[in-house]
Design brief:
alpha/beta, 60s Ribosomal Protein L30, Chain: A, Alpha/beta knot, 2 domains, 7-stranded parallel beta sheet, 12 strands, 20% strand, elongated
Length: 287
């Protein structure tokens, strides 16, 4: 923690670097996190907002670099996070509004942002429990959809999200923003379609694929008493035949209007809540 001075006000954390120049090499490195290649090379990503940073710390994530606006100096929460970052070997930067705008690429940037190390789980490390619900996503292209699905998975208490083949980077700025902090609470797995099929054949989970040609109404499936994997396809192409044949059930969401399909994040949310309906205590739901 940062401690207090004689007047009771928070003391300035030591080892804080003040930066106002966009040409600073540390700032250049952080700005480069907008590119997937740099995120992959450094195994890191950027998250924006004081609440998201606090949530991440509460969930055991370690900050590599904390960046905050000069106007945040002396604020107790920011000083406490800065002190914790320094104590754990991280870097703390106090920057100008111009630098924050350049890093976030927003005209009204969050006043606190942080760089974290990426976390991915392997298929082999998954220990399935009877009430687990996983979401598997095949070649999802839209970062907003992926972020919304991760957020929904967190909200409904799903075990995690599997990203199959060329699914968009979950650690892109757009995806992380759309998760609203759920990126820190939701285990993520990367796998090829072949790896997923091999794993699902051994794992003993019920794999339910969402398919326009599905013969089963998603509401009639018994999701109780066993782990479930909801397999959702690419927004345009749907599930390829290889993955569809690996499903225990091919389900569809009935539609009555003129639209020929649902948005992927909406469809995933509908199926998620149905699959976990027997596990949700609506009496404790927020008003």
């Amino acid at each position: 923690m940062s401690g207090t001075g004689p007047s009771g006000a928070p003391q300035r954390v030591g080892q804080v670097k003040e930066i106002t120049s966009l040409s600073n090499p540390v700032i250049k490195d952080i700005r480069a996190l907008s590119m997937k290649k740099h995120r992959d090379e450094t195994r890191s990503f950027l998250a924006e907002g004081l609440k998201l940073v606090i949530d991440a710390i509460d969930l055991g994530w370690v900050i590599r670099t904390l960046i905050y606006a000069k106007a945040q100096r002396g604020k107790p929460q920011v000083e406490a996070i800065a002190a914790l970052t320094v104590a754990r070997g991280g870097l703390v930067l106090e920057v100008s509004e111009k630098v924050l705008t350049a890093i976030t690429r927003r005209d009204n940037p969050q006043a606190v942002i942080a760089v974290f190390e990426q976390k991915l789980t392997s298929l082999e490390a998954i220990e399935l429990r009877p009430d687990d619900t996983w979401i598997a996503l095949d070649r999802v292209r839209d970062p907003g959809n992926l972020g919304t699905i991760i957020r929904t998975a967190d909200a409904v208490g799903a075990a995690g999200v599997m990203l199959i083949d060329d699914t968009v980077d979950p650690f892109s700025t757009e995806t992380v923003r759309a998760t609203m902090g759920s990126i820190f609470a939701t285990p993520l797995v990367r796998a090829t379609s072949g790896q997923f099929l091999d794993w699902s054949a051994r794992a003993g989970a019920l794999v339910v694929g969402s398919h326009l040609k599905g013969s089963v109404d998603y509401r009639t499936i018994d999701y109780r008493g066993r782990p479930v994997v909801l397999l959702m396809g690419n927004e345009q192409a749907g599930l390829p035949e290889q993955l569809a044949t690996g499903c225990g059930q091919l389900a569809r969401i009935p539609q009555a209007g003129r639209a020929d399909s649902l948005n992927l994040a909406i469809a995933t949310g509908i199926m998620l809540y149905e699959a976990r309906r027997h596990l949700l205590d609506l009496g404790e739901a927020a008003p």
